[in-house]
Design brief:
- The chain is α+β, with helices and mostly antiparallel strands.
- It folds into three domains: 2-110, no CATH class; 127-265; 275-341.
- Helices cover 64% and strands 10% of the residues.
- Strands 3-6-5-4-7 form a five-stranded mixed beta sheet, with helices on one face. It has a two-stranded antiparallel ribbon with strand order 1-2.
- It is rod-shaped, with a radius of gyration of 47 Å.
Length: 342
Amino acid sequence: MKWERHTEFFTLTIKQANSDDPQTWPTPPKFLHSVLADYADQIISASTLRVETANRWAGSVEAYGLDKPAGSRIGGDDATVWSDFNLDDRHINRFLLVNDCLDNYRLGRMARRLFDIETYRMMAMLALPEAKALSSDLQYYEAELSTLSNQHAEQHTSPAEPLLSALTLFSAKLERCGVQTRQRFSATEAYSSIVFARISEMREERVGHYPQLGMFILRRFEPATRYCDAMNRRVETLATSATRLNDLLRTRSQVEIEGQNYKILQSLDARASSQLKIQKAVEGLSIIVISYYIFSLMKLGLESLSALGIDIEPNVAATVLVPLGTLIIATLTWRVWKVKKH
């Protein structure tokens, strides 16, 4: 008995002696029935490989109870393997291997390949129900994305925010769908590659009019894996299309925002220009007012001196005060100009 732990499953291999009766196939030990009784619904695959030598086998594959079997010469024409892929009453698939000249090492390798084909084939098929369920969801998502695309093309003058919100919600649902199925589809791709490799390693050759074992498997297995791969690619294509539409909408929204910003800047520029004109007018009026007050103060000063008995000739006063007032006004004007320049 050999127990092996894998990533998603474990395998149990039991070696037993053959019965002399070709119709009697090896059965699992009785204690194993009680152990596995509680896990019957979790068994993915169960297979029996009966190995016979070329000089001891019954001479006819039908003698072993295989109905319309598929068979191939394998291992460089050193052995023959048969199976009808019909489950018996214990839900076990049966393989018959007639060994011509395989040594123990090659025989063990060939048995391992047959078990791998059956195990990984069934593990790969776990994605098929999910792919079928996903197909209807993808039809709905494709219709929804088409509607969003049409709205984007036809409503290019309307605001982009409502459409962008709807697309964001759509992308979230699509991403959730992808997360739920991506791991299973990736596992199917890995398992199917193992099945194809094991079939290739058997180096099959046709036996009479019987269908080849590997061809029999591939004709039923390959379409299922391609269907799962197609569903996975549909999800990826939808995600890519949604991302591209999202980029277009964000570009459109950005252009709208830039247009609004341009209008705001124009408004601010016009307001600043008006304020500058007002400021210049105020500065001009300020200089006039200051000049008026300066000359008023000079006049009051002269009147005060006259009241004190100090008379100053008008010509002398004009000669002194006019240049002084002009100098003060020029100084104020220069200071204002310097402040504006900085």
